[in-house]
Amino acid sequence: MELKDMLYEGKAKQVFLTENPNRVVVRYKDTATAFNNIKKATIVGKGKVTSAISALLYEYLAKAGIKTHFVELVDECDQLCRRVQVIPLEVVVRNTIAGSMAQRLGVEEGVEPQNVIYDLYYKRDDLDDPLMNDHHAVALELVSYEELKVIYGLAEQINTLLLELFRRAGIRLVDFKMEFGRTPEGEIILADELSPDTCRLWDIETGEKLDKDRFRRDLGRVREAYELILTRLQAVKN
Asked: Which helix (H) or strand (E) holds 156?
C-alpha cells in the first residue's frame, strides 16, 4: 500500500491518502493526551496496542453486521480504512456514571443508572469539544434528525454487542466514545477507533481502571493495562 500525503493529524492518529481515492491509512501513534491536549506524553508501544484492540473490536462488530470504516491491518500501527466524511460529533455512551458526567452533576463515580445515557459533543478543539443536544447539532447543520436516529440506533446496537464481549473478558464497559462518518453513497458507518483511549474500562472483580484514566490520573502502567485488555479480548473474541 503506497502512502501519499498526510490528510490529517490528530492527538493519537495520523491519516494518509493512498493511491485509491476511497481508501486511507490510519496510523496509531504512541502519543497519550488528556484535558484537550494540555497533558501529553509518549508511551512507547501504545500505538500498536491501541491499533490491535481497535481492529479486533471492529472485526467483532463487522461479524455482527455493524458497518465500519475498518478494512484490514497493514502492519502493527497502520490500518487500511474506507475514506469517509467524518461527522464532527462525538457520541458518548454511558452505562455507568463516571468521569466528566460524575463531576458535572455531582454524582458519585460508579453509579449505574437505570437507563443508558447518550451524550453528544461538538468536535471543536478550539471550543474544548462542548456538550450539545440534538437540536444544537441539527441547527448547526452537522446532521439531520433522520441521521441522528440512525446514529443512536447504531450506538445502541454497538453498546449491546460490546457490553457482552467485555463482560466475557471480565471487563466492565463503563462508557465509550464513538465517531461516525458518511460514505460517498451517504451511508452512516462507524469510524475513528475503539480502544482504551476512547473507552472507560474497569476490571469487573477488582474495579481497577484499565483505560486512559491511568494516564489522566497518574496511575501509571498505562501500556501494561492496555496490553491486558488486548490479551483478555483475544481470549474471548470467538
From this structure: helix 145-168
Residue type for 173, please? L
pLDDT band at 1 (very low <50, low <70, confident <90, very high): low
**Euclidean distance between CA atoms 130 and 123, whole angstroms:** 8
**Phi, psi of 19, rounded to the nearest 5 degrees:** -70, -15
Confirm if 169 and 204 have CB atoms less than 8 A apart. Answer: no
For residue 85, give Cα distances in angstroms to 5, 138, 185. Answer: 17, 17, 11
CB 201 within 8 A of CB 166: yes
CA–CA gap between residue 27 and residue 222 (Å, rounded): 19
User: Cell numbers 474506507 label which residue?
Assistant: 82
How far, CA to CA in Å, does 81 sit from each of 4, 30, 118, 137, 172?
A: 14, 20, 26, 26, 28
Q: pLDDT per residue over 128-156, tens digit each?
A: 999 999 999 999 999 999 999 999 999 99
89: region left, alpha or beta (phi > 0 left; psi from -120 to 50 alpha): beta
pTM of the predicted protein model: 0.96
Return d(Cα 125, Cα 10) in angstroms, integer. Answer: 10
d(CA 53, CA 142): 29
Distance (Å, whole) CA 238 – CA 220: 31
Enter the C-alpha cell of residue 15: 491519516
Average pLDDT over residues 111-118: 97
Band of pLDDT at residue 115, cut at 50, 70 and 90: very high
